[in-house]
Every structure is written in structure tokens, then in C-alpha cells.
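Forum: Protein Structure Q&A
Topic: Joint prediction for protein chains with partners

I've read a bunch of threads here and the consensus seems to be that you should model interacting components together rather than docking separate models afterwards. I'd like to see that in practice. Below is the full input, 943 residues plus whatever partners are listed. Could one of the regulars post the assembled result?
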Amino acid sequence: MGPQHPSTHGVLQVKLKLDGERVIDARCVIGYLHRGVEKLAEAQTYAQYVPTLDRMDYIAAVSNCLGYCEAVEKLLGVTAPPRAQYIRVIMTELNRISSHLLWLGTHAIDLGAVTVFLYCFREREEILKIFENYCGARLTTHMFRIGGTQYEIYEGFQDQVRTFIKGFPQKVDEYETLLTENRIWIGRTRGVGVISGKDAIDLGVTGPSLRGSGVQWDLRKAKPYAVYADFEFDIPVGGVGDTYDRYMVRLEEMRQSTRIVAQAVEKIPAGPLMAKMSKIIKPPVGDVYHSIEAPKGELGYYIVSDGSTQAYRTRVRPPSFVNLQALRKMVAGHMVADVVAIIGTLDIVLGEIDR
Amino acid sequence: MAEEEQKDKQQTEKPAEPPKPPQAAEPKAATPKPPPPPPGAKPAAPSKPKGPAQEPWSSPLVDAIKERFGDQFVKAYSFIGQNQIEVKKDRIVEIMAFLRDNDIVPFNYLADETAVHWPKEEQFEIVYILYSFTKNEHVRVKTRIKEWEEIESVVQVWTTADWLEREVYDMFGVRYANHPDLTRILLPEDWVGHPLRKDYDIRLQDVEWVRKHLGIDSGQKYYVGEARDETTDYITPSD
Amino acid sequence: MEFAIDYVLIPFIKILVVFLVVSGVVAYLTLAERKVAAFIQVRLGPMRVGPYGLLQPIADGLKLMLKEDIVPSQADKWIFTLAPIITLIPAFIVLAVIPFGPTINILGRPVSLYITDLNIGVLYVLSISSVGILGIILGGWASNSKYPLLGALRSAAQMVSYEVALGFSIMGVLMLAGSLSLVKIVEAQKDAGYWYVFQQPVAFLLFFVCALAETNRAPFDLPEAESELVAGFHTEYSGFRFSLFFLAEYAGMIVASCMAVTLFWGGWLRPFPNVETFLGIPLHFLDLIPPVLWFAAKVVVFLYTYLWFRWTWPRYRYDQLMKVGWQWLLPIAMANVIVTAILVLVLKG
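Posted by a regular:
Agreed with the consensus. Here's the joint model:
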């Protein structure tokens, strides 16, 4: 399945070994979108590097920003002030909803349900409007700075978020009426792309793909970062680990994110937006690893600093890269038409895989 | 919280109870108190002028490693609350298997595997970031290999190392022994050069490859194999 | 002279009228599809060409006709050209037996609102529709490319499988009406006093599902819409030849709707045909609407349902599709035939 393909969500080539209609083996060829993001880090200062990271997972750019800023803050030993943390959490959760909406739209349209795609984009439009009002950009947002956030929330921000939050759960229910009980949808997704919890952990799969297999692990609960510990939310878990379970997990995650935002937007504390730190970021010599729960999985940053203004080595641990390895195991024994469904359910972004 | 605990107990493979939200600015020494120190604690505000320093870390796990692989063990320390172990590379697969299967802290998940190039010391530092679901702990294991040496692949311990090691090979040129398929993953198959090495200038490009596959002259100033001209005309941020 | 008028002029005029009307409907069906899709998807659809996009089909037709004529180099040119024609012609020929209305008087002359009344009308329809499948196979083969061939074969296999169930589902109606002629089937519904859908609901549902599969429409449109490997039999077609395939698909939809209406929904009969009063309400006002319009209204409802289904449901995988056709629909159709036969025997003596 060549790199130019409507259903592979980016430039991905999958070489399938077929026996009639059944797939025996699958090899992924990636690297079409490699831009040398990790090498660029060595030529830019810490603050200069943040916009480059938006381009990695361009669908959920806010998470990339959050992870890197938190990693550098960890290295520096500063904590962003509470107001900044609350704004960060709200934006990151809205970002998670928008990423899942895009996933649902593209997954549904791959399997033939065209209308769901347009409904999801209608909702995503609302979120992107909020992003645009906040920082001026819809897709590659560069929202946060090392040490906090730069922009103050605009007037009407809380009302706009509240309006969105109020109407959103009904929309999720609407998607459910179209898909969840539909026997064609169930026929296409039940039993397709099954991966057990044990295999998933061995393969390094994280995020909703792991939770669909029954492993209840979410970095927001296991190692709370930002102010997630202040909020109440549940982690949805699937049963079997097939495509249908992952679909339900992501739908439920959208609802839980709504819950977090609803709690957060009520109690944004007053205070400064940036922590007190020097303008020139020179972290101490050493290294740090910090990971967050991006919409696609565990997004990790490993930064090695040599005491200068530029990082010595910045490593991004992309969730989609590791998740895509699982494709080989999930596809074996299925038909060709299911490969599209499985690629869709893994929720990959080539920008992140190739960096 | 209680409800979650109950839910936790009903599922398989639960992580440990999540730690309490890190309190601000409390220097946490990494010396052990039973149970092991909460991992990933927020770093303290640097009290020394040079910032946080490496503190030695000892725990039952470190003792077990020292016991079994005494000659391979180099040091174990903790930096800003993150625990690290450095070992030699000779029996790396056994050490990893031990880390995965031991009873004290079973690290059943390889979060990341990457490398750092230290040209002055003429070596690569291979970094493995491991995570234990049951004990909710991260640890970093580092080994050093000299250039052009081989290191054994840990694919048999965690399957996720497959592509991660391919990427390290692609970017750094580190060869892994016993890897099922050590080929370039991000760059094209016939690219020459390993970009993330420190001697690969950021504007370097495999001009031959570009000429062959794209049919154009890339116009880059430097290319692989040619010594870099000292008179550069671009500005770095440190200027 | 009478002969000439009755047997040459009038049929000729009828053919012309039917052809023009159906062509117009096919053209505007493409617009309707886009508009219905748009409204379901919370957007507007074509709006630029003409008021509310009403002249869009003309623009589309012009575009397709003026496009460059591309024939793949290794393709068999004659068959490549012939295939869409073979698909299109049967779709239009079938309309010759469909009754659009009863016999009415025009200028003092009784004119029957159907082109002809074959006493094997149903058989004619089924057999001519099967010819259309040949066009698809030829189109895929003549393109001289792996993927259209695979798509064509899949498409053909799907259509053939569902034809069996289609045939069985019609049998119940035939038993009730006692004739293969479509005109007589409508008359029989008039005599019975209600449409056959009320006596054969299962058969109707089966018929409609099979009709969806016959015309390669969602949710059975895998051979043409699954773009992961196979882009369908009409990959290599562009321009005028593609428009012929395109028209054939919509004409097929119209024919299937007309058949469903004629066999199950009373053709040109009004609701409660042949019944004077219902619960004491005289029903003469329903007669004010000419039968042709009743027919048209019912066909429109069916066409809308076709469009509605396409944009609401995901599509079946190929093996699931075949399974549904052979393991589910065929046994249900056969069971329906047996039950109907028993009931007819018992109730009609």
C-alpha cells in the first residue's frame, strides 16, 4: 500500500505479504516525513526549539509543547505558577478532544461512514476557534513557554469554553447513535486487530491502544504532571483489545476530558503566568526524562544538557512510532480491507513517527 | 480514590497507587527510605550555585544487580529525583532480562532506547529508559560503547526495542548484534552518513543520493566525506 | 393509418417521452445526491451554478463530455468503448415494461401509460438487468490493469449473488398476483384493495436490500469505493465513457426504485385503491392527483432512501457482504416463498 494513499493518514508505506485475501506479514516503510527535528535541537536554544516541536504531531500540537516545557522546567528546577498550570491543563484537554475528534472522523470515513467525518470537524472547528482566539494559531499553536504561559486568557475565554463543554457531550452521544450499535460498524471493528495486554506492553504500545487491551494505565493518574492531581476523572478501559474497544475507549476519553475541562475552567486561580527564572535558559549539566499522556500515547522527552544554552541532545519518544510497531502483530491473519481499519485505530501521525 | 482502588483491583496489571501530587520545592534526597522513594518528584529549587548534583542511589534493586553482575556495574546515582544505573555493555542482555524479571522491581516496559554521542570521549552512551507498571517507577540504564563497537540487541527482552534500535543505528551508526533486521528506518536505504553524530554538520547532506534519486544538484555547501571549510558564513545562536 | 398511429407513432412518442424524462431525472439525481449528502453533513452542497446549484448537472455533463479521451495504451480499444454502453443500455431498456399509469384518454384516444405490456414483464426485467453485469466485467477486463479487473470481478460476483435472493423475493408477489406482467400485477393490487407490501413485508425488505447490492450502492459499495487496493472497475475511465458508467449507475437506481414501487407499493395506485371510504371518510379527493404523480412520488421516496442510506452507514467488508447475501438473505427469501405458497393455497382455496 503505497505512500500515496487516502487511508494511511500521512505518507506511510505498508508492504503486505498476502495469501489470497489474507495478510501474512506487514512491513512498514516510514521516513517519508523525516525532517531532522532532533538534529535541529542542537542548533537552537531551548526557547527557540519549542515551535519546532509543534510540527511533529501536528494534530495535537499543544501536547508536544507541554511535554517539552515541563521537561526543561524539571531540569531547571522551576515550577510553573498555578494559573499557568490550569491554563495548560485546559488547553491540553481541549487538544485531546480535538485530536480524538479528528481520529474518529478519519477512522469512520475509512470504513465508509462519511457523515461522521463532517460532524467531527464541525466540533473540532469550535475548539480551533478557541485556540485561535487564545494564541493566534489553529494548528501549530506554540502555546506555552518554558516556565509558564505567555498569553493571558482573553476576555470571554471562560464563557466560550463553557458553551463548548455544555454542548459537547450530546454531540458525542450523536456520534454514538450513528456508529456504536450499527451492525455494519460492529462487523467491521469487532475482532479486528486484537492485541492482548501483555503483547501490548511488550511492544511498548501506550495510550488508548493500550487501554483498549485492558491495561488501566494513564500517565495523568500514574505520575500526575501539571495539576491533573486536582481533578476527578476516570480512565476508560477496554476488554478485548480489538478495534471496537479502542473506539469506545477514545469516545469515553473525550467525555472524561470534557469533565476535566469543566472542572478546570471554574477554578482558574489568579496569579502570575511565568515563573521567576532568568531570561537565558541555561540548565545545569545532566539529563532528564519526562513523559506526558499525549492523545496518542506516552510522549517522552529525554534532554541532555551540557550547561550551555543549547541542548546537547534532545530525544523525542514518539508514541505513534512505537505503536506502529504493533501493526505487524495486529494485522496477521486479517483481510486486506481490515488493514485500513487497523491503521486507523492505532491513530498514528506520520509527523510524529518520522520527526 | 477508594472507588478507583477497587476498580484497580479488578483489572489485570495495575500500576501502583499513584503518588500524591508533588509538593513544591522540597528537596528530596534520593537515599532510600523503605519503601523506595517516590519517583519523578518535582526537582528542588537549586540550592547550590551550580544546580543539582548527582547523588548516589542505593536500593534493594541496585544491591541485587551488584550481587549478580558485580563486574558489570559501574555506578548508580540519582539526579533531580530520577534514578539512573550505569553498567558495562558486555552482558547487557542478561542485565536487561534480570531487570525485567526480577521480583524487587520488575521493569516490564521499555519506554525508550536512544543514544548520545560524546565525541570528545570517543564513545556513545546508550540510554534505556525502563518503566515498571507494578511499582510505577522509572529508571534509566546507561552503557557506553566505543565507536565502531557492537552492542547486543535487547529485542529478545522487549520487542519494542526493534524499531528503537533501528533508529539508533540509522542516526548514529551504532551496530546491534542479533537484531532481526538492522536497516535504516527513517532515512533512505542508500543514504550515507549518520546524522545525529556530532561530526555530522547540521547542513550536511548526502549530495550523491540527491543527485541520483532526485536528479538535481542540491547546492549544499558541505557533503559527506569532505572536510569542512573553516570559514563559515552562517550564524549560530551562541554567537 | 390507425395502425401507423397506434403502433408506430404513439409508441415512438412514448419512448421519446420516457427517455427524456428519465435522462433528466438521472441528471438531476446526481445533483440531488450531492444536495442530500450536504444537508446530512451540515453543509450546503453545490450552490454556485445557477440558483441553489440547480444548473450543476448541466455543468457536470459539459465537463465530462469535453474532457480528454484517455484510453490506456494496452487496453482493448473496442471493448473499452463498448463496456459502458453495454452497462447503460439495459438500464434504459428495462423501462419499456414499467407501468407509469393506467390507460387514459388523450385527444379521444385511449393511450396506455406504459410503453408495452409484456406478459413476461418480470422475467424481462430480471434478465435484461443481468446483461448489465457483463458490461462491468468487460470494463474491468478491457482496462488491462490488475486492480480494475479485481474490482470488476468482485462487483460482478456481488451482483450475481444478490440477484438470486432478489428473484426469490419477487416470487411471493408473483404468487399473489398470478401473472408475470407488470401491468397485471398493479391491476391485481387494485383488485385486492391494498398494496402488496402489506401482504409481503419481508419480501419487500429483502427486495430493497438486494436492490441496494445490485446497484453497487452503500452499504454494499465496496468494489467501487474501497480505495485501499481497488478503485473499482471504472478506474481507467474518464470523460464521456465515465459519464456513461455514472449514468448507468443512477439509471439502475431509478429502475430498481420503479420496480419496488410497481411490485410492492401499488405502482400508480393511490393509497387505499379501489376503496371508497375508510372509517367513514370518503377518499375521492385522493383521485384528484393523477396516477402518474402518485407513481412519481413513490419513486422519489425510494430514491431519497437510497441516498439517505449511502451517507448514513459505513460499508460492509467484501466477505461479510457475500455472507449476508448467501447465508442470510437467500434462506429468508426461500422461507418467504414457502410460507406465501402455503398461505395462498390455504386462504384462496
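Residues 6-354 of chain A form a domain with the Cytochrome-c3 Hydrogenase; chain B fold (CATH 1.10.645.10).
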